[in-house]
Specification:
The complex is a heterodimer of chains A (116) and B (841). Chain A is mainly alpha-helical and 116 residues long. Chain A has one domain. Chain A is built from three helices and no strands. In chain A, helix 1 runs parallel beside helix 3. Chain B is globular. In chain B, helix 6 packs antiparallel against helix 7 and helix 6 crosses helix 22. In chain B, the strands form three sheets. Chain B has a two-stranded antiparallel sheet. A two-stranded antiparallel sheet of chain B has the order 3-4. Chain B has 27 helices and six strands. In chain B, strand 3 and strand 4 form a beta hairpin. With 841 residues, chain B is mainly alpha-helical. Chain B has two domains: 473 residues, Cytochrome c oxidase-like, subunit I domain (Cytochrome C Oxidase, Chain A, Up-down Bundle), CATH 1.20.210; 164 residues, Four Helix Bundle (Hemerythrin (Met), subunit A) (Up-down Bundle). The chains are: A mainly alpha (116), B mainly alpha (841). Chains A and B meet through helix 1 and helix 3 of A and helix 9 and helix 10 of B.
Chain lengths: 116, 841
C-alpha cells in the first residue's frame, strides 16, 4: 500500500488531496446524519474535530515523506532522480495546500453548532 | 519543411517511405470515405467545427433573449418560448459547445504536443463525435415537435417530472444530453490513456507540456464529475417513463436528490471547462513572453489541486434550499479555497510576462482580455461564496453576470486566443491581424457592456429566468444597454469565426513555426500531415524546439522511430507512464464504418425509447451488441507478431504483449467512470434513506435469506473462475483457460436467476416507493454488469480459441478477468447495501 502511494508516483501525488476529499465527505456526511438522527451536539462537534485531527496527521505524514523523498533526490543530474524530485516536490506542496483546505473546512466546526 | 540534417545526407528510401506513411494514414477518398475517418486530426476538426456551429445557434438564442429583455413589456417571446430559449441556450453552451470544443482542441493538439502519431483509440474518438452530433440534433429536433425542454438547463424536479411537465420536453433533454455526454466520457478515457502512455520518448512527467497536465486533470474530473449527472438523468428518465419514485415526495422520494446529483456534476463542470483553457494559456503565454513559463511546478500544483477542490463546491449552488448552516459553511470554505490555485496560476502567467519580452500579437490580445474578465468573474465568485451575500443575490441577474464573466472570461477568450494561435498549424496560413483586432475589441467591449450592467440590475432585484420586469424597477436603460452591447459582441464573434474560416483560403502563407514557439507541435510541417511525425521525436526538455531546432527536421525524416510503414499498418509508440521510455508498439485501427454504425444504432434505440416504443428499443439492443462485438473483434491488428521493430535496432512488444497496454489503461479509466456512477447510485440510496421515516417502508423487506446467500456465493465463484483462467493462460494452457472463462457463465446466470426474483419478492414493483425504486435500480445496475461481464467472457473465450490470446499476449484475458473482479466487488457492495444495511440499522 505504501508503495502504491509513493511520493514519486501519480497516485502518491494525488494522495494528500484525496485525504482532503475524504475528510470533506466524511465530515459533511456525519454532520448530515447527526442532524437527522438528533445526536448530542457537543459530541458531534468533538467527533468532527477528531476526524479533522486524523486527516491532518495523515496529510502531514504524506507531506513529510514527500519532502524527505525530494531531499534524497536533490543534487544529482540523473534524469530519473530529477523526475522523482519533481513529483515529490509537487506532492509536498499539495500536502501544504491540503492542510490549508482541511483547516478551512474545520474552522466553521468551531464557530457553529452542528444543526443550527 | 524538409531541412536537410548534417549537410543533406538523407536516406535515399525516404521519399518512398513518406509516400507509404501518407497512404497508410490517409482517410478513405471521397465524401463517403469521410464518413469512415478515424484519424484524430480529422475527428477533432469535426468536433471544433460542430462546436462553433452550436455556438452560433446558442448565441442566436441569446439574441432573442436579449431582445425580449431590452425593454419592459416586450412581446418578442411569450413566457413558454422564453423558458425554452433560456433552457436551450444554457444547455447548448454547456453541453454542445464548451465541453465538446475543448475536447476537440485537446484531441487535435495533444498528440502533436506529445510527439505522438494519433490518439490511442481512434475509433472511440470517431464514435464520440457521432454521439455528440446525434445527441445535439436530438435535442434540437424537439423544436420540430414543438416540445423543446423549458425546465432550465439544470432541469430541477418537480418542475420536470411527469406531473408538471407532461410533454416530451424533458425526455428530449435527458436523452439528447446523455447521448452527447457519451462523447465526453469516451474522450476522457482516450485523453487519460494518451497522456499516460503515448508521450514521446524522454518526455517524463516534469517535461510534459502544461496543456497535457491540464487535459489529464480535466479528463479525470470528467471521469468523476459526469457520472452523477448521467445517473441523475437515468433516474429522472425512468421515473418519467416507468413511474419510479426517486424524486416524488408522496412516495418517499426527495427532489433535492436531483439538485445534489446535478450540482455534483455542475460545479466540477465549470472547472472541466476552465482547466483546459488555462492549459492553453500556459502554452501561449511563454511563446509571446519569449521565455519558458515561470513556476511550472506551481502551475502543475494548481491544476491538480483545482481538480480536487472543485468537487467540494457543489452545494454552493444550493445555499438557499434550507440546508443546515454548518454544512453550508463547509462548502463556503471550499469555494474560497479553490480561489487559491486559480490565483497561483494567474501570478505564474503574470510573472512569465513580466520577466520575458512580451510580444503583443493577436492571441496575446485575447489573453489580456481573458485576464481582465476572468479575474473580475473570480472576484464576484468569491463574493457569492459568502452565504449571506448569496442569499441576497441568489436567482438574480447578478448571478447571470458572474457566470458569464467566469465562462466567457475563462473559456471564450482563451479559446479565441488558442484558435488564432494554432490556426497556422491547421491551415498553413496566418490569420489577419487587422480583422482580428477589430473583432477582438468588438467582443471585449461588447461583452463588458452587456454583462457589467447585469451586476447592477441583479442587485436592484431583477430576477433570472423571468421574461419581463416592471418599469418601476428602474432597470430598463441598463437592460437596453445590455441588449445593444450584446449585439455588438455577437457581430464580433461572427467576425472572428469568418476570419478564421477565410484564413484557410486567403491567409498569408505561414513560415515554419510562425510564432517561434518551443513546444513539439511547432516542430511539425504546416499544414500537418495525417501521421503527424514521420519519425517519433525524442525530447530532452520542456521546450524541445527551443532546446534543439533540428528536432523538426529529424522528425520529418523517416530514419527514426517507426519511420518504416512498409507493413501497411498505422503504428504509434507507447512509452512508460512515469519515465517515458519506449515500451511498446501500438497498432491502431484504420478507417472503418464501425463508429458510425454503432452510433446510428444507439440513435435508433434512443429514438424508439423517446417515442415510447419500448419493445422496439429493447430489440435494438441486439444489433447494438452485434455491432460492438464486431468492433471489438477487429480492433488494432490481431495478427501482429508479439514483437515489432520500432527501428532496425530496436524491437518492442506489440500492445497485446505489453503490461501497460492502452487497452488495460482504458479499462482502468472506464472502471473509474463506472465506479463513480455506482457510487452516485449508492449515494442516492443513502440520501433517500436519510429522508425517510421507515426503511424499508411497511410491506417491504430486505433480508437476504438462503437464496440471497447462495446468490452471493455464486457471484464469488465468477471471480475464482476468472482468476483460474488467468493462471491457466499464463501457464500456456489456452484451451483450459477458454473453458474456465466460459464456465463463469454458469454461476453468473445462476446469480441473476436467484437474485432478481429475490428482489421482486422483497420489494415488489419499483413504483410503490422510493425504497423499491432505488433497490431495483441498484440490483438492475449490477445485473447489467453481470450480463456485460458474461458477454466479455464469451468473447475472450472465442479469442482464446482462435489463437488471438495466449501466454505472450494475455491482454484481453487480463481485461476480462479484471472486469469480473470489478463486477463481483461492485456486486458485494450492492448486495450488502440492499440486504445487510437495513437489517443493522
Amino acid at each position: 500500500m505504501a508503495r502504491v502511494i509513493a511520493p514519486w508516483r501519480l497516485v502518491g501525488m494525488a494522495a494528500p488531496m484525496a485525504v482532503w476529499a475524504l475528510h470533506f465527505v466524511v465530515v459533511y456526511s456525519v454532520q448530515g446524519l447527526a442532524c437527522v438522527e438528533g445526536w448530542n451536539q457537543a459530541m458531534v462537534t468533538m467527533a468532527l474535530l477528531l476526524l479533522t485531527v486524523v486527516a491532518l496527521v495523515a496529510i502531514v505524514w504524506l507531506g513529510w515523506r514527500a519532502h524527505r523523498a525530494a531531499a534524497a533526490c536533490a543534487g544529482t543530474d540523473d534524469a530519473d532522480a530529477r523526475r522523482r524530485r519533481f513529483v515529490a516536490l509537487v506532492t509536498a506542496l499539495l500536502a501544504v495546500l491540503s492542510v490549508v483546505a482541511v483547516v478551512f473546512t474545520a474552522i466553521p466546526i468551531l464557530l457553529l453548532s452542528p444543526c443550527a | 519543411m524538409t531541412v536537410p540534417v548534417d549537410g543533406g545526407q538523407r536516406d535515399a528510401r525516404e521519399p518512398a517511405r513518406l509516400r507509404t506513411l501518407e497512404r497508410v494514414w490517409a482517410n478513405a477518398p471521397g465524401w463517403i470515405g469521410q464518413l469512415t475517418a478515424v484519424n484524430h486530426s480529422t475527428v477533432a476538426m469535426r468536433f471544433i467545427l460542430t462546436g462553433f456551429a452550436f455556438l452560433v445557434v446558442g448565441g442566436a438564442l441569446s439574441m432573442f433573449i436579449r431582445l425580449q429583455l431590452a425593454w419592459p413589456g416586450n412581446e418578442v417571446l411569450d413566457p413558454r418560448r422564453y423558458a425554452q430559449f433560456v433552457t436551450l441556450h444554457g444547455t447548448t453552451m454547456m453541453f454542445l459547445f464548451a465541453v465538446p470544443i475543448l475536447e476537440g482542441f485537446a484531441m487535435y493538439l495533444l498528440p502533436k504536443m506529445l510527439g505522438a502519431r494519433d490518439l490511442p483509440f481512434p475509433r472511440l474518438g470517431a464514435f464520440g463525435y457521432w454521439c455528440y452530433l446525434f445527441g445535439g440534433l436530438f435535442l434540437y429536433s424537439s423544436l420540430l415537435f414543438d416540445a423543446a425542454p423549458d425546465g432550465g438547463w439544470f432541469m430541477y424536479v418537480p418542475l420536470t417530472d411527469a406531473t408538471f411537465s407532461p410533454g416530451r420536453g424533458p425526455d428530449f433533454w435527458l436523452i439528447g444530453v446523455t447521448f452527447a455526454e457519451i462523447s465526453a466520457v469516451a474522450a476522457a478515457v482516450e485523453l487519460i490513456v494518451a497522456v499516460l502512455i503515448t508521450r514521446a520518448p524522454g518526455m517524463d512527467l516534469r517535461r510534459m507540456p502544461l496543456f497535457a497536465w491540464a487535459v489529464l486533470v480535466t479528463a479525470f474530473m470528467i471521469a468523476f464529475g459526469f457520472p452523477p449527472l448521467i445517473l441523475g438523468s437515468i433516474l429522472l428518465e425512468i421515473q418519467r417513463a416507468f413511474g419510479f419514485a426517486f424524486f416524488d415526495v408522496a412516495r418517499g422520494g426527495d427532489p433535492l436528490l436531483w439538485q445534489h446529483l446535478f450540482w455534483l456534476f455542475g460545479h466540477p463542470e465549470v472547472y472541466i471547462i476552465f482547466l483546459p483553457a488555462a492549459g492553453m494559456v500556459s502554452m501561449i503565454v511563454p511563446t509571446f513572453a519569449r521565455r519558458p513559463v515561470v513556476g511550472y511546478l506551481w502551475i502543475v500544483l494548481a491544476l491538480v489541486s483545482t481538480g480536487f477542490l472543485s468537487f467540494g463546491l457543489w452545494v454552493h449552488h444550493m445555499f438557499a434550499v434550507g440546508i443546515p448552516l454548518l454544512a453550508l459553511a463547509f462548502f463556503s470554505a471550499a469555494s474560497m479555497a479553490v480561489a487559491v490555485p486559480s490565483g497561483i496560476q494567474v501570478f505564474a502567467w503574470i510573472a512569465t510576462l513580466w520577466s520575458g519580452r512580451p510580444w503583443l500579437r493577436l492571441p496575446m490580445l485575447h489573453l489580456i482580455g481573458f485576464f481582465a474578465v476572468f479575474v473580475l468573474g473570480g472576484l464576484t465568485g468569491v463574493m457569492l461564496a459568502f452565504v449571506p451575500f448569496d442569499w441576497q443575490a441568489h436567482d438574480s441577474h447578478f448571478v447571470v453576470a458572474h457566470l458569464h464573466y467566469v465562462l466567457i472570461g475563462g473559456l471564450m477568450f482563451p479559446l479565441f486566443a488558442g484558435l488564432y494561435y494554432w490556426l497556422p498549424l491547421a491551415s498553413g496560413r496566418m490569420p489577419s491581424e487587422s480583422i482580428g483586432r477589430t473583432a477582438f475589441w468588438l467582443v471585449f467591449v461588447g461583452f463588458n457592456l452587456t454583462f457589467l450592467p447585469m451586476h447592477l440590475t441583479g442587485l436592484m432585484g431583477m430576477p433570472r429566468r423571468v421574461q419581463d420586469y416592471p418599469m418601476e424597477m428602474g432597470v430598463q436603460w441598463l437592460n437596453l444597454l445590455s441588449t445593444a452591447a450584446g449585439f455588438a459582441m455577437a457581430v464580433g464573434m461572427v467576425a472572428i469565426l469568418v476570419d478564421a474560416a477565410l484564413c484557410f483560403r486567403h491567409g498569408r502563407r505561414a513560415s515554419a513555426n510562425p510564432w517561434q514557439a518551443g513546444t513539439l507541435e511547432w516542430a511539425l510541417p504546416q499544414p500537418v500531415p495525417p501521421y503527424n511525425f514521420a519519425s517519433v521525436p525524442e525530447v530532452r526538455g520542456r521546450y524541445p524546439v527551443w532546446d534543439d531546432p533540428a528536432v523538426a527536421a529529424r522528425s520529418a525524416g523517416t530514419d527514426g522511430l517507426l519511420g518504416d510503414a512498409s507493413h501497411g499498418r498505422r503504428e504509434m509508440l507507447g512509452t512508460g507512464l512515469l519515465t517515458a521510455a519506449p515500451e511498446q508498439v501500438i497498432r491502431l485501427s484504420g478507417s472503418t464504418w464501425q463508429p458510425l454504425v454503432s452510433a446510428l444504432v444507439i440513435a435508433a434505440l434512443l429514438a424508439c425509447f423517446l417515442a415510447k416504443w419500448y419493445v422496439a428499443a429493447a430489440v435494438l439492443v441486439l444489433p447494438l451488441l452485434a455491432s460492438l462485438l464486431v468492433w471489438a473483434w477487429t480492433t488494432g491488428d490481431r495478427h501482429a507478431a508479439p514483437r515489432l521493430a520500432a527501428t532496425p535496432a530496436l524491437a518492442l512488444p506489440v500492445q497485446y504483449a505489453s503490461r501497460n497496454a492502452p487497452g488495460w489503461w482504458a479499462l482502468v479509466s472506464a472502471l473509474l467512470i463506472d465506479g463513480s456512477l455506482f457510487a452516485s447510485l449508492v449515494f442516492a440510496y443513502f440520501y433517500l434513506w436519510l429522508g425517510t421515516e421507515a426503511w424499508p417502508p411497511p410491506g417491504m423487506a430486505s433480508g437476504a435469506g438462503i437464496a440471497g446467500w447462495i446468490a452471493l456465493a455464486l457471484l464469488l465463484g465468477c471471480w475464482a473462475l476468472g482468476a483460474l483462467s488467468m493462471r491457466a493462460v499464463r501457464g500456456g494452457r489456452t484451451g483450459i483457460a477458454a473453458v474456465l472463462l466460459l464456465a463463469t457463465l454458469v454461476p453468473g446466470i445462476g446469480f441473476l436467476a436467484l437474485h432478481l426474483p429475490l428482489v421482486a419478492e422483497l420489494v415488489g414493483a419499483p413504483s410503490r416507493h422510493a425504497y423499491a425504486s432505488v433497490v431495483w435500480t441498484l440490483a438492475g445496475f449490477h445485473a447489467v454488469h453481470v450480463a456485460v461481464a458474461m458477454i466479455i467472457a464469451g468473447f475472450v473465450a472465442a479469442r482464446l480459441r482462435c489463437g488471438h490470446v495466449d501466454a505472450v499476449r494475455p491482454l484481453e484475458l487480463r481485461v476480462a478477468a479484471a472486469f469480473w473482479r470489478y463486477t463481483v466487488g461492485q456486486g458485494v457492495v450492492a448486495w450488502a447495501v440492499i440486504h445487510l444495511f437495513p437489517e443493522v440499522i
